[in-house]
Automatic annotation (TrEMBL), chain A:
<comment type="similarity">
    <text>Belongs to the binding-protein-dependent transport system permease family.</text>
</comment>
<keyword id="KW-0067">ATP-binding</keyword>
<feature type="transmembrane region" description="Helical">
    <location>
        <begin position="239"/>
        <end position="265"/>
    </location>
</feature>
<dbReference type="GO" id="GO:0005524">
    <property type="term" value="F:ATP binding"/>
</dbReference>
<feature type="transmembrane region" description="Helical">
    <location>
        <begin position="134"/>
        <end position="155"/>
    </location>
</feature>
<feature type="transmembrane region" description="Helical">
    <location>
        <begin position="12"/>
        <end position="30"/>
    </location>
</feature>
<feature type="domain" description="ABC transmembrane type-1">
    <location>
        <begin position="70"/>
        <end position="260"/>
    </location>
</feature>
<dbReference type="InterPro" id="IPR000515">
    <property type="entry name" value="MetI-like"/>
</dbReference>
<feature type="transmembrane region" description="Helical">
    <location>
        <begin position="105"/>
        <end position="128"/>
    </location>
</feature>
UniProtKB/TrEMBL annotation, chain B:
<keyword id="KW-1003">Cell membrane</keyword>
<feature type="transmembrane region" description="Helical">
    <location>
        <begin position="224"/>
        <end position="246"/>
    </location>
</feature>
<feature type="transmembrane region" description="Helical">
    <location>
        <begin position="129"/>
        <end position="156"/>
    </location>
</feature>
<feature type="transmembrane region" description="Helical">
    <location>
        <begin position="286"/>
        <end position="310"/>
    </location>
</feature>
<feature type="transmembrane region" description="Helical">
    <location>
        <begin position="176"/>
        <end position="203"/>
    </location>
</feature>
<feature type="domain" description="ABC transmembrane type-1">
    <location>
        <begin position="92"/>
        <end position="307"/>
    </location>
</feature>
<comment type="similarity">
    <text>Belongs to the binding-protein-dependent transport system permease family.</text>
</comment>
<feature type="transmembrane region" description="Helical">
    <location>
        <begin position="34"/>
        <end position="58"/>
    </location>
</feature>
<dbReference type="InterPro" id="IPR000515">
    <property type="entry name" value="MetI-like"/>
</dbReference>
Length: 275, 318
């Protein structure tokens, strides 16, 4: 009994320390972001929040177009997430529930494309965007992202197990065409999967760095990640300001995850079960 | 279109002919919708992935500076890569060493955390959300915070090692191995919780009877872990190894923010993708960068195959 209790206590202690380490950098962002850079660069370093957060964040606003970058990020993330949810579920519906020649081959092909690393075609992609005069437009980021193999794979797995043929059949008997069957029968059943894919896509786009940093050079189209990176590059020394900006940019993400954590966690674990 | 409603009605009688034609037209419409619904993916894939990928193979045969002229040089870029570019091989070595340092402790730690989370503790939900928080943070934000923690002179880490533990101050950014450790710590911090949740899901799917039966047979906890738990969650382990391999081979944002375009003055954290990025978009050598991209692809493929072979082998021996 005693041994077991000690075991439980140390398990709690270990998990608590893990969570503290997980959360600490966020706290640290705020601590540095609310003090002066001089406070951050001395021994012992400050460990409690100061009162200068507003000063530092004003500094951020003077140096980068913070809210514009945030707005750009919202536009890109919402557009890609919405398009992905629609096109991926539509393609998955076809691959899972419509009988047409070559659908199995097509599905295997789509999954195989997941193996291609993004970096492989990134130089020509840049040249293409240049020729289409899309460099420095948000379209250049949105367009390649509107549908993806990962989303189709995800949706099809879910569709296979939860949208039964009998439902499709009865919809047809009621006179539904294929698109109406998709929209009125399949989609509502898919709601949990849509939520999970949606949050994964939204966060992935929100945090994306490589391609946006290449194709969005003008400050007017910067996403928040690129803006933060610039803050970091140019004003390297003013760590208090950098942290204040980073903290503010992290808050929306934390809120989204706080609200949707159930879907996010189920998304991660579902990926494992399918492997 | 007019006949659509007609065709969707259930066949009035057992008439063979009407059923046949109805089935046929449904089949036709399934074909039409099927290809139509998949076509957005095929178009986007063809335009923004397949075409660029093939084109990059073509570009890799040229000496092509953004502002200068294109000259066909055959496989010369690849010859240079192999024989005359120590920096490239350094980036390969760095990528692998940081992958090792970042992945191995991470997966063991994740398995340990998952085992604890699986032990019916109170507040499980809180711990689950707690460990996953690092994974949702943007890489840029992570790197920015860790720069401050691993500051060259002043920083939490140096305060801890020098003032508290009494060691000498470490220049986390300039020193070769320390910079690599710092970047690996970022990777571990961000991904351990994610993998722990994957392992947890796998642990929860193990039937409890297996443990009960082996307890009756007198198996110790450790033996149970070795001979029941590990084999039962092997698919999840393989999954996490594959994921962290793909992620590790493409390590980019952390070293970029931590040490800049060239991965530090001594290129201590220069990775393959960072080298590609720098060559293409800072030095504007499109041809050479395309050759790097293809080498990167080949290395990822070879390493994934090796991984697969290894996991298969583990599969068959136990």
């Amino acid at each position: 009994m005693v041994v077991q209790r000690i075991g439980r206590l140390s398990a709690y202690a270990f998990l608590l320390v893990t969570v503290l380490i997980s959360i600490f950098p966020f706290y640290w962002m705020f601590v540095i972001g609310s003090n002066t850079t001089a406070d951050a660069n001395r021994f012992p370093p400050v460990i409690i929040p100061g009162s200068l957060y507003m000063d530092n964040i004003t500094n951020v606003f003077n140096n980068i177009e913070f809210f514009r970058a945030l707005g750009n990020t919202v536009i890109v993330s919402v557009a890609i997430t919405a398009a992905q949810l629609f096109f991926s579920s539509l393609a998955a519906f076809a691959l899972s529930r419509l009988h047409f020649k070559g659908r199995h081959v097509l599905f295997v092909f789509i999954v195989t494309t997941l193996m291609i690393p993004q970096q492989l075609g990134i130089i020509p992609l840049y040249i293409i965007m240049q020729n289409l005069s899309l460099v420095n437009t948000l379209t250049a980021v949105i367009l390649p992202g509107i549908v993806g193999a990962y989303g189709i794979f995800w949706m099809k797995q879910y569709m296979d197990s939860s949208v039964h043929y009998e439902l499709i059949e009865s919809a047809r008997i009621d006179g539904c065409g294929n698109f109406r069957t998709y929209a009125t029968i399949a989609l509502p059943i898919m709601a949990p999967a849509l939520a999970t894919l949606g949050i994964i896509m939204f966060m992935g786009t929100w945090n994306d760095f490589l391609w946006p940093s290449i194709v969005l050079k003008d400050t007017s189209v910067h996403t928040i990640q690129i803006a933060l990176r610039n803050l970091n590059k140019v004003y390297y020394r003013d760590i208090a300001m950098i942290m204040a900006g980073t903290f503010l940019a992290t808050i929306p993400l934390l809120i989204v995850v706080g609200v949707f954590s159930r879907y996010f966690i189920s998304g991660i674990t579902a990926g494992a079960v399918k492997a | 279109m007019e006949s659509r409603i007609e065709q969707n009605r259930p066949a009035a009688g057992p008439g063979q002919a009407t059923a046949q034609s109805k089935w046929r037209s449904q089949k036709f419409r399934d074909h039409l919708s099927g290809y139509l619904y998949v076509s957005p993916f095929l178009i986007v894939f063809a335009l923004f992935t397949l075409f660029p990928v093939l084109w990059s193979m073509y570009i890799s045969l040229f000496s092509w500076k953004l502002m200068g002229s294109k000259t066909f040089i055959g496989l010369q870029n690849y010859v240079w890569l192999f024989t005359d570019d120590p920096l490239f091989w350094k980036s390969v070595g760095n990528t692998f060493s940081m992958w090792l340092m970042g992945t191995i402790p991470q997966l063991f730690l994740a398995l340990f955390i998952a085992t604890l989370l699986n032990a019916n503790l109170k507040g499980k939900r809180f711990f689950q959300v707690g460990v996953i928080v690092p994974n949702v943070t943007s890489l840029v934000a992570v790197a920015v915070v860790f720069i401050s923690i691993f500051g060259a002179n002043y920083g939490l880490m140096n305060y801890f090692t020098s003032e508290v533990l009494g060691f000498e101050k470490i220049n986390w950014q300039a020193s070769y191995w320390h910079a690599q450790i710092a970047v690996s710590v970022m990777v571990i911090w961000r991904w351990t919780g994610y993998n722990a949740l994957i392992y947890l899901a796998a642990l929860q799917s193990i039937p409890q009877e297996l443990y009960e039966a082996s307890t009756i047979d007198g198996a110790s906890k450790f033996k149970q872990f070795l001979y029941i738990t590990i084999p039962m969650i092997r698919p999840a382990i393989i999954f996490t190894i594959i994921l962290s391999t793909i992620g590790g081979m493409q390590l980019f944002v952390e070293p970029l923010i931590f040490a800049g375009n060239t991965g530090g003055q001594a290129n201590q954290v220069l990775t393959m993708v960072l080298y590609l990025y720098d060559t293409a978009f800072a030095k504007n050598s499109f041809g050479y960068a395309s050759a790097i991209a293809w080498m990167l692809f080949v290395i990822i493929m070879l390493f994934s195959l090796f991984n697969l072979y290894l996991t298969r082998k583990i599969n068959s021996t136990t």
